[in-house]
Amino acid sequence: PASAPPAAASTLARPPAKPAVFIPVNRTPEMQEERLKLPILAEEQAIMEAVAEHPIVIVCGETGSGKTTQVPQFLYEAGYSSDDSIIGITEPRRVAAVAMSQRVAKEMNLSQRVVSYQIRYEGNVTEETRIKFMTDGVLLKEIQKDFLLPKYKVVLIDEAHERSVYTDILIGLLSRIVALRAKRHVPLKLLIMSATLRVEDFTRNQRLFPQPPPVIKVESRQFPVTVHFNKRTPLEDYSGECFRKVCKIHRMLPPGGILVFLTGQAEVHALCRRLRRAFPHTRRRPPEKEDREDSVEELRKFKKSRTRAKRALVAALPQISLDSYSVLPAGEGDEDREAEMDEEEEVALGSDLDLDLGDEGEDGGEQPDASLPLHVLPLYSLLAPEKQAQVFQPPPEGTRLCVVATNVAETSLTIPGIKYVVDCGKVKKRHYDRVTGVSSFRVTWVSQASADQRAGRAGRTEPGHCYRLYSSAVFGDFEQFPPPEITRRPVEDLILQMKALNIEKVINFPFPTPPSVEALVAAEELLIALGALHAPQKTESMKQLQRSRLSCPITALGRTMATFPVAPRYAKMLALSRQHGCLPYAITIVAAMTVRELFEELDRPAASDDELAGLKAKRARVAQMKRIWAGQGASLKLGDIMVLLGAVGACEYSGCSPQFCEANGLRYKAMVEIRRLRGQLTTAVNTVCPEAGLFVDPKMQPPSESQVTYLRQIVVAGLGDHLARRVQSEDLLDDTWKNAYKTPLLDDPVFIHPSSVLFRELPEFVVYQEIVETTKMYMKGSRAGGQLLA
Ligand code: ADP
Ligand code: MG
């Protein structure tokens, strides 16, 4: 090796250029046999030779070919974790990081002390860890701590085809880290693993990799999959359609697992419950006497609560006995029971009932058939790890496996024994509004590439079938590939993270696909306004200004902000609130402002007069509660933010009970989410500032008058550019400007939403979270409740 690296560099041990060691692994014979069936085993030598000769290697292979589970093992055996170094693998999803670490530990017959995982606030990494699965965000944080990643001899970026923002950034960063480590003669190997062959963004990108890395293709044994399109135009109620399809497959088609793709956790649970009820594992024993009385009582109540509509419907369909929709599941907890009851109501009132029943009728009018057990399992990102692991177990003897999943099952996880895929064709994606910068989750059609990936899940072990719940014409209109996430969203959070890494000239950063210059400039401008970046010096020309705009260094405040897991605006609010005991309030406000839709939608059309009366009464109740929560005098200056604080506080006093939420028009799920986020933010604040010694006190006292004043300043500091001023009477252009506000960016009048407590107050200045256009331009926080501030 040539000259020594500068002393400032990390403490890097200098390993031999090519690890020559062979570390034996003591696998069980069964496991070894199972491994040998994987297509990637045939490529072991090719991959290891490429890794030995090149700093960067791309491995492409169909999902299930063995990339994630096997490549780390190849590297381990070849000694890439000797000398106390670690083989690091990043996953865009937490569920994959956890599941894959468990699987690899099991295959290698090693404990989770050696093959471990780390996700944001959780992990089992020890001194002994040699293979570490982590989310891409975790590795990014490690790069912030030590840019050269001295602990690693090799880093694998998994699921690169997903093009998640953090994966893209990591690839850009690692291209530089690999070069720096080479200069210091302590090489770092980078492996990029992708499920598709579409890797040109990596290989044909001179800036990213001046020498295109070799691509190793893994041939996979894929059995033919017959794709069946729906004839009908796509249905709104795809969950109901999935249910019907699974019933049909289970009753009529030969053995083989079923995998259903839905878009979200709630849908997954609802379908699981419906399927379990339709095909129970065991016939229900008559309940014990006491139980029976209980459930008879509940059944009676439930029947009473049925609407006339349902009675008429059920009467018209005598082949469905009432009881088959009303029996409570045996042995489940109260919570589940409650959920079950809720869902019953939904099933009863929703339009999907008649659809299902109609179709069941076509199938011969069978009643759910309890003699054919279906082993129904949910799978989604936030599912507890031990529950996730269940999908990999063989189903109980004599049952058929049915996994109801979100798109985590599309490429991240391969479930054994799937022969039938039911694809709703939709995916839930974060949607970012370029104008307001506010994000929301929307359900959209998947891309053709994703739909084909999903279909491919059916042909892993034998020829399979994929049922698409949409027509081939609709498929023809799908995008070919999903656009990389980085091109679809504002990037201020990313830019802040990169600046925290001392990457000042983001315009020069080797993004696999760069965001637009406008998006970069907008991000820097916002960050400068928030005080996270130093403003550029005054320069002569616009061009120069723009260039310097894209190279502003981070401030100390910016560094603190970069450590909070929320968007920079809200991070700024947190960073400012360590005064006068404001932190717990600021944390609650930020949590409540970043969760979607705190209040239930009460403006929805009602199906009956009864329902309409109910909605009206509830609207009145919510309006009254909002006035109470908003308080009087000084606290009113916090406007709807005071309402948020009041609502969260009151809900916590009730023990965060679903009944309380229901009675007061609050979304129970949002309240649970806020509670979780408050915990996370408190941990983050304590990490930056241990002397704050914060803990989550659910039952906060309302803020004092002076605290209200500070909180107001704090919120304005984050939302200062979202300011609107009331149009003065002398400026009134015409009637359309009555009670209107003016913002710097829009020519049109904007208004305070009627749901805001400031609707009648009409203060001179307000700040808003977003502007939503319905009948007028309304300033709002979330769809059902404005968050404004006097
Ligand atoms: P890839 O990363 O190429 O998509 P994986 O390495 O994830 O492939 O999977 C390889 C094989 O290992 C698949 O056939 C899959 O079914 C199997 N597998 C993965 N995880 C588990 C598990 N936890 N239990 C049983 N089999 C598993
Ligand atoms: Mg994989």
Describe the structure.
- This protein is α/β, with parallel strands linked by helices and 790 residues long.
- Helices cover 41% and strands 13% of the residues.
- The protein is built from 28 helices and 22 strands.
- The protein has an eight-stranded mixed sheet with strand order 4-3-5-2-6-7-1-8, sandwiched between helices.
- β14 (426-432) and β15 (439-445) form a beta hairpin.
- α23 (583-594) crosses α25.
- The radius of gyration is 29 Å and the shape is globular.
- Residues 1-10, 283-296, 301-368 and 782-787 have low confidence and may be disordered.
- Bound molecules: adenosine-5'-diphosphate and magnesium ion.
- Magnesium ion binds next to α3.
Q: What is the helix tally?
A: 28
What structural category arises from helix and sheet content? Answer: alpha/beta
Tell me the overall shape.
globular
How do the strands of the widest beta sheet line up side by side? 4-3-5-2-6-7-1-8
Number of strand elements = 22
What's the average pLDDT?
Answer: 80
Helical amount: 40-55%
The unreliable regions are 1-10, 283-296, 301-368, 782-787
Give the distinct bound molecules: adenosine-5'-diphosphate, magnesium ion
Largest sheet: 8 strands, mixed
User: C-alpha Rg, in Å?
Assistant: 29 Å
